[in-house]
């Protein structure tokens, strides 16, 4: 399919950030916007599938009590807008609950969490181990630890539902949605109209023309020739896996009121993890989810798709099982399930939101926390690509892309 239609903006990647960007860009009735990206595969083992997304799950933690002020501000602004999007679309995706960060007394992690909570005036409490025990009797947190609890404006977003809501809202504003994978982007000079347009070529042979393209391609930004080879963002891709434990009705009841949890115990990084309280999944079962810090980075890009198709590393699964037993002893899971995923890490720890060429912009680098920023990152990226330059009240230097050093001549 090649049509004569030339879009103003084509967003590539229909994940958390791409769907948010398409929603924001299509708020402008003068912009003709298209969003291109594949849906989540029906089965994990889908051979031949070349790109995957980091949103294939039912729970992502959202909070503001760690990280730097920009990180927290992006999370705060996104959080403020969740309710509006939910009522606009009739699609609920946010569940409020408390957040607990804990670690060794006086550790950098706990100090950072306390200072951030105070500086940003978050509604919070600092709790000793014995207080933690009173609040959540089923948690087993050693005497040498203390916790910082964020009490409001935090909880969990359902990333699948958030993507669906943003796509639905974008579509109702006139954004065309194309369910396909982009194979390449070519620059073409339009002799008749005397300007350059971009041809976005999909794996199934469609050509979509656009004046500008915004890449929101997450961990698969490098898997296709979408960018000039000498302008590759400096991103590292980290392997992650999570373990879900299917809970009985009795165990779900026992964990009622459980907060989202992040544990950082630098003296023993085997104990570092995060946990999401029981969540109902599409199979009708309720699971408790646990994940770890970064395991390591991929050596080759080709390994990334295979990692998505795989079952993770058995020793990591065992470690996660031990951590659950350590922190919440006495659970009797009915089954367990491993999910594999990829974290896209930038040098700054903040997202790269930048124009790579006058016609191609990028928004990548979730750094393992990009769901909580997603609504606002989509807004920043949409404003930038619409104008062709920075158009937001936070300094653009924070979000400037850093490039890899290799220098090869450009096709675009
Ligand atoms: C295990 C795990 C747990 C996490 N937990 C949290 C959490 O608790 N809180 C939090 O805030 N964040 C969390 N995150 C991070 C969060 O999920 C990501 O930061 C977020 O999904 C990033 O959004 P994105 O749009 O950049 O990427 P994605 O959501 O991955 O979307 C990118 C999309 O681009 C598409 N794509 C790629 N290449 C192409 C192409 N060539 N053509 C068309 N489409 C393409 C992909 O199919 C995908 O749908 C977690 C991540 C992982 C892996």
Describe what this molecule looks like in 3D.
The chain is α+β, with helices and mostly antiparallel strands. It folds into three domains: 2-56 and 160-234 and 348-399, 3-Layer(bba) Sandwich (FAD/NAD(P)-binding domain); 98-153, no CATH class; 235-346, 2-Layer Sandwich (D-Amino Acid Oxidase, Chain A, domain 2), CATH 3.30.9. It contains nine helices and 19 strands. The chain has helices at 16-25, 69-89, 108-119, 129-135, 159-172, 249-254, 303-309, 314-327, 374-387; strands spanning 2-12, 33-36, 60-62, 94-96, 99-104, 124-128, 145-150, 155-157, 176-178, 182-190, 195-202, 207-215, 235-246, 260-264, 273-280, 286-292, 335-346, 352-355, 360-364. Strands 1, 2, 9, 10, 11, 12, 18 and 19 form an eight-stranded mixed β-sheet that branches. α1 links the parallel β1 (2-12) and β2. α2 crosses α9 (374-387). It is globular. The two termini are 22 Å apart. Residues 407-412 have low confidence and may be disordered. Flavin-adenine dinucleotide binds at residues 12-18, 36-38, 51-55, 60-62, 159, 181-182, 216-220, 224, 240, 242, 291, 341-343, 364, 366, 368-372.
Which features does this protein show?
single chain, 412 residues, alpha+beta, FAD/NAD(P)-binding domain, D-Amino Acid Oxidase, Chain A, domain 2, 3 domains, eight-stranded mixed β-sheet, 19 strands, binds flavin-adenine dinucleotide
